[in-house]
Design brief:
single chain; mainly beta; 5-stranded mixed beta sheet; globular
């Protein structure tokens, strides 16, 4: 089994993937979307969210994957305790069977620039 894409976002698309983002708000859920391919039976996968300023692991998800072919697995990170991520830079690190498989840097900011998120579709009926 190999990791061929690691995307980090806030909400899954209908196909299970996420729109890749690099900037997040403190209160947002952060989703690691792992796109894998190959065959595997109960392979351990670990995803860590690490605050880059101090190296502290602020979130960790572990799962065992069994698959045949291409698959998407989403793992969610929600801030516990104070309820908001600290502002700053983070790195998402993925390990498959204990070996590094991918990483993605993200930033938590107080505000997002215009256009940083697609606007949700208009409600039916034009309300």
């Amino acid at each position: 089994m190999t990791l061929f894409a690691l995307d980090v976002g806030v909400a899954p698309n209908p196909d299970g993937t996420v729109m890749p983002l690099t900037r997040f708000l403190p209160q947002e859920k952060i989703i690691a979307s792992l796109r894998t391919q190959g065959s595997a039976k109960s392979v351990p996968v670990s995803v860590k969210l690490i605050e880059m300023s101090n190296g502290q692991v602020v979130g960790e998800q572990n799962t065992d994957l069994t698959l045949s072919g291409a698959a998407t697995t989403n793992l969610e990170f929600v801030k516990q305790g104070a309820g908001a991520w600290a502002l700053g830079r983070y790195v998402m690190e993925v390990a498959i069977a204990g070996k590094p498989a991918g990483r993605q840097e993200i930033e938590v900011t107080q505000t997002l620039p215009d256009g940083a998120r697609p606007k949700p579709p208009a409600a039916p009926g034009g309300a």
